[in-house]
Amino acid sequence: MAEVKSRVGRPSGDTQNRDKLILAARSLFIERDYAQVTIREIAGLAGTDPGLIRYYFGSKESLFSTMIRETALPVVAQLYKAKQEVRQDSPAALMSTYYSVMSKHPHFPRLMFRIAGLDQSLPENAEVTKAFYEVVNFENIAIFQRLKEKGLLREDVDAHCAQLSFFAMMVFPFLVPENLLQRVGIEITPTFLQRLAEQNARLLQRGLMEEKDESDE
Description:
One of its GO terms (molecular function) is DNA-binding transcription factor activity. Keywords: DNA-binding. This is TetR family transcriptional regulator. InterPro entries: Homeodomain-like_sf (IPR009057), HTH-type_TetR-like_transc_reg (IPR050109), HTH_TetR (IPR001647), Tet_transcr_reg_TetR-rel_C_sf (IPR036271). The chain is mostly helical. It folds into two domains: 43 residues, Arc Repressor Mutant, subunit A, CATH 1.10.10; 142 residues, Tetracycline Repressor, domain 2 (Orthogonal Bundle). It contains twelve helices and no strands. Helix 1 packs across helix 2. The radius of gyration is 20 Å and the shape is globular. The relative contact order is 0.11. The N terminus is likely disordered.
């Protein structure tokens, strides 16, 4: 991420103001479409001057991109690790990291899901979709194809089907309507997500992975 260089006359409360703008932007962009959110609204919710958005980020587009990248940074780092060293526990480790991050921002996946459905051919969606695909790099996400190539998946497992099942396990808990969760007695809390991550890890291991020691390779 390109940071704005330090300048003479940097305003007081530098880090706090920047963080407040990130938090306000995330809150507003999750609630409404990108085009409906204004710089003045973001600054108002953050309790700062609108000029600070240009000072720290340069534009609303850059603030949006920064918010997406910084929120997803731990997940992206885990994806990179999984790409560098493919192991049977790579999907489980990624899911655990994802749940941990999203437990702090449970509505963020809904924003990402909404962005994924935007028409990329429209000029007004260019910056939004660019930020999305910088985070959601499909080359990095294709974990199960690499597991298949290394012989770590069971012979009867289709890598593409496994990848889609994995997406569903990661994203669906955050997309379920609140009233449906309440009807089945589920509350999406950090404790629940930790239990869910552990159970899903067992499902992945027992249902998809070859029963052999990776050290044999």
